[in-house]
Amino acid sequence: MSDFRYSTGPTRVVFGSHTLADVRPEVERLGRTRVLVLADPGLGTVGDRVREALGALAVGRFDGAVMHTPVAVTEQALALLREVGADCVVAVGGGSTTGLAKALAVRTGVDQVILPTTYAGSEVTPVLGETDGGTKTTRSSPDILPETVIYDVELSRGLPLGITVTSAVNAMAHAVEALYAPDTNLVTDRLALEAIERIARALRRVKADPADADIRADLLTGAWLAGTCLGSVGMGLHHKLCHTLGGTYGLPHSPTHAVVLPHALAYNAPYAKEAVRRIGEALGNPDAPAAIHDLLVETGAPTSLRELGLAEADLAQAAELATAKPYPNPAPLTQEGLAGLLRAAWAGERPSLGGPPRLDWLTDQVVSTIAGPPRLRHLLGDLVRRLHGFAIDNDLTQAEWQAGIEFLTRTGQLCDDKRQEFVLLSDSLGVSSVVDALTNSRTPETTPSAVLGPFYVEGPPELEHGTDVADGLPGVPLHVEVTITSTDGSPLPGAVVDIWQSNEDGFYDVQLPDLEGPVLRGRFRADDGGRVRFWSILPSEYPIPADGTVGDMLAATGRHPYRAPHLHFMLAAEGHQRLITQLFVAGGKYLDSDAVFGVKQDLVVDFPAGTGTPPPGRRVTGEWRDLRFTFRIAPA
Ligand code: NAD
Question: Ligand 1: which of 49, 67, 132, 232 to mutate, most ligand atoms within 8 Å of CB?
Fold first, then answer.
């Protein structure tokens, strides 16, 4: 749990297409009657359209906003505002025009209605940065926060690609720093991730279709959410550096943000691992700094402070200025560290967390070659993606890959018509139980299924009821009588019941070359009452074959090879689904750590001591057990 303080901004937000038309009703809603229009000088006729929409409410116009809000420009606008007696400003333009509106509002108390045309996000923050004599100072006050923001997607459709990208990364920077802000909270956290995801998604597509309304809507929504984060929590190193570079060296605002963000993020990454991981997730690339740099390259945005006009000689002083006053930031701020960061940003290097390279293109290429029936295509494509992902996520080495190939080769070489090491591998990794659970056991009315295991042999000998399948092998005599019914309880005469089990030492007949013919396995047909009866011996716990690759794996991973004692059954009846299952001896060993994860509670049953005269089929002296069980199988 972490403590936080959070206030929701009182700004009213109007979002949509062609919402410029709402400007007059929004001003009227505020009860204002005399508007000074502040229009971005680069917007052509948009200022005229706003003025027109305001009609008689517009009493003046100022088109001279300048980046970083120089106080001298504010004073010119202030003189005009007083001259026309305005009680409201309507600003249409980027962050510079918004900045001027804020500067006027904080000096006079006039209301503000802002129509943002870039993605700076300033319109939803109570922050104002102003420059005077080469120094940029920032102040924050609720009076600075605009009353109303009208987001009109149409206004940014014509924003040139260059500004679009840098401005969108400027917004992304607010969201990025919000995620590791010391006063972060659940609300800004969610907004920030949503903003990053939307902005990254839009940036990947905007070059191909800059006027697309959906892309622009994503960017504008991202800007609003990210701006809300900026207005709510404290920013760190990235904003501080950009503030210094813009205020002291006159570098352009959003291009500076775009160049610095990947480097600031890489600098903070070792101290903000969880935030960087989530940023990477939102960007769709775990190497978040590299991903942002690559987005800049792909969209043709600047990547170096050198191309923005910063002199190499200024780097040392900039590092000094940025560390002059302490402020909260995940990574410690050292002059040496910041000098390194600035040098890399100046030179336009590609910062990286040093993780594995991006290989999506290779995965996509492989998957795109897969043709054939839809299910096959889907399964193989997904398998390829997961295998590639496994190799990439674990930074698989050549030696590990080679060891894996050799393991699988040996597993295959151990397989023949009697031994199935691959099934054993699947069993001991729990895969067989997963597939079993997906395929069977879906209805509560039927007896649960269990894995087939590697020792079933096709075509077991057909036996008479009462036969002793142990054929003289030592062990506690076990009499078994099972009934096979449908889910409604009606018996299923003629049902075919295959059974198989291990001997007293835990071996199946196929593991004992000296044994002649099948033992401890057989096929019975149910009588008119749906019953099957035979003699055998009490099964005991046993190790799965540990002399092969599966045994090597169990030993290497500290696992025992034992299976809980059980009898295998395969049941087939006309008009019914086949059931493969096992009955486990209650009280037996390893019920809670079965090596193949095959135990299900409903299949753990009593094998009680037999009483009275033993049924025919075996001569019994002394202790014997008497298992009775009813299987319910589902109609097909
Ligand atoms: P900007 O407002 O200076 O605009 C950049 C350029 O884009 C300008 O040449 C402008 O004419 C042009 N432009 C804007 N919209 C256009 C459109 N739709 N079509 C064509 N051209 C268009 O730059 P910005 O990056 O939006 O804002 C930067 C300023 O905002 C800086 O002063 C910065 O300090 C401030 N800012 C403040 C905050 C805050 O919370 N206080 C937050 C972000 C930015």
Answer: 67
